[in-house]
Design a protein that fits this description.
The chain is built from nine helices and no strands. It is mainly alpha-helical and about 180 residues long. Helix 5 packs parallel to helix 8.
Length: about 180
C-alpha cells in the first residue's frame, strides 16, 4: 500500500517527467514542477530539498521502472530463449521514440551526480546479466545491448542520428537475432 508521502513523491516525479517531455530539461525549475503537480513549492521542497535531489529521484525512479517493465515483458514472453533480449529491445524502442527529452535529463544527471550514476550502473548491470544469460549466444546479447546504447547516444547527443526507417529496420534485425 502506498503511503500519502509516497503518493506525493510519485505525483511530483510524474509532473517532473511530463514537464521535461513537454518543455526542455535545461529550463526546468522547482516552481514549474510544483505548478505542474498542483502543489506548493514548499510541499515539493519537503520531498525534494533541491533541484538536484529532484533529478536524482527522477533518475532512480526511471531506472527502477525500466527494470520492472523489463521483468514484466520478459515474463510474459512464451518463448524462453531470448525473452530478456526481446523485452529490452521493445522497451528501448518505445523509450527512444517517446522519451528523448527525458532521456537527455536522466543521462545528464547520471553523469553529473554519483548517486544517480549508481542507480544507472546497477540497472545496466542487471540488464546486461539478463542479456548475456538469455539462452542465446552471449555475443549476440552484447551486440544487442551495445547497438541499443549506440542508438541512445546518437539520438541523445544528436550525433548523426539515423533516420526513422533505418532505426526501425535496425530494431527488427536485433529482434530477429534473438530467435
Amino acid at each position: 500500500m502506498t503511503t500519502k508521502s509516497e503518493a506525493k513523491r510519485m505525483l511530483i516525479l510524474k509532473a517532473t517527467t511530463e514537464w521535461i517531455v513537454e518543455h526542455d530539461f535545461h529550463n526546468l525549475t522547482l516552481e514549474a514542477v510544483a505548478k505542474k503537480a498542483g502543489i506548493s513549492k514548499g510541499g515539493l521542497l519537503y520531498h525534494f530539498p533541491s533541484k538536484e535531489d529532484l533529478l536524482v529521484g527522477l533518475t532512480q525512479s526511471i531506472f527502477e521502472e525500466f527494470t520492472l517493465l523489463l521483468d514484466e515483458k520478459a515474463e510474459k514472453d512464451p518463448i524462453k530463449k531470448g525473452k530478456w533480449s526481446r523485452a529490452y529491445i521493445e522497451l528501448s524502442r518505445w523509450d527512444l521514440e517517446n522519451n528523448s527529452k527525458l532521456n537527455v535529463a536522466v543521462m545528464a544527471q547520471s553523469l553529473l551526480n554519483p548517486e544517480a550514476s549508481k542507480t544507472m550502473v546497477k540497472s545496466y548491470e542487471y540488464t546486461q546479466d539478463r542479456l548475456l544469460n538469455d539462452g542465446i549466444d552471449p555475443v549476440i546479447g552484447a551486440i544487442i545491448r551495445l547497438t541499443i546504447d549506440g542508438l541512445y547516444y546518437s539520438q541523445l547527443l544528436d550525433i548523426a542520428p539515423i533516420e526513422r526507417e533505418l532505426k526501425n529496420e535496425t530494431f527488427e534485425k536485433l529482434y530477429e537475432m534473438t530467435k
